[in-house]
């Protein structure tokens, strides 16, 4: 097997089986790029299609203001709802919001239209690590470099209560400097999902990388199954092929369950010992992240440069793209919306209204001053309604001796769009008081609603 020390610039000859699409479909994929608005929300110029899956397509794009290259993952709401995956997408947003690390693909913001949700994420120019491995096995030093970066990211995820559960070379990208970036947290789990027995129980992962305890269906430790997958990846980096592989899936699963594999003859004793600890079929005795940090083979090379990243305190306040409008108003990005309690599952509906029990939100392209003036004008048509402007961008409507109160606040999303947040309070009169807003005032505001592109 050819040893790979160079940048990926030759035609790959995959040394192990893959379900990747052939390059012959590239022109077909590029034609499909017309399905996305080429100027998304006036913020991103959308370019070529990078790839597609069952529920999402990923495009290269450019931030209009900064010129920064990004990747935009467009998720079909219809497919998500049809497959009952709304909670799945919400969890992926929640997870990626927690993570900011040099070796994890960064999520900048989340946008939505009537039919799609867009993840704006860091663009990894070097493509998949999978493509580089496909050209031949790595040297031991190069294997160690990428494994150190991988464990740095995985250890960080675990410290934040996140378990990836689908680590494999296809989900490891490379930046322009050929450094590793972990991506695709679609199957990830959070500490909050752990059952009273202290274990996770959802069966997931890619067959060749799945841990034996998952096959046992008895519950598993999310951190330990990630370590197993890291062991598979390290084996592949060094060997150029999978440790457990067989055309018959059940035969392969038996090999995984029993831990039956053989390292190639060129594997050093130190590396062989670490792989054995990583691919320990007993999760109770399998090596931990802390144990990996102390391993002699692991600590060689560039570990002294990577280790400080593990100890660094990341600034979560800058997790997403921030900015100000030309009038000095602060933008409200998608993460602000999430943290303020907006149930994004509402984005999967057929319209752009999101209606929690105590209010509603809608997006408008009108100027905030016009929105407030319109609400004030409509409300004053109802003689019983008292209208009071609030400091900043807001207005308060009150009627029926305080039994009816509606507070409207406006927050900027982009240079062109704002979010109108309506908070309603029921008084002694009960739900009937809210009908004043629902039946008389709210219908007259439909002209303010933004009608997004597909």
Automatic annotation (TrEMBL):
Residues 1-10 have a biased composition (Polar residues). It catalyses: L-seryl-[protein] + ATP = O-phospho-L-seryl-[protein] + ADP + H(+); L-threonyl-[protein] + ATP = O-phospho-L-threonyl-[protein] + ADP + H(+). Keywords: ATP-binding, Kinase, Manganese, Nucleotide-binding, Serine/threonine-protein kinase, Transferase. PROSITE patterns: NAF, PROTEIN_KINASE_ATP, PROTEIN_KINASE_DOM, PROTEIN_KINASE_ST. It is an enzyme of class 2 (transferase). Its cofactor is Mn(2+). Residues 44-298 form the Protein kinase domain. Pfam families: NAF (PF03822), Pkinase (PF00069). Belongs to the protein kinase superfamily. CAMK Ser/Thr protein kinase family. SNF1 subfamily. This is non-specific serine/threonine protein kinase.
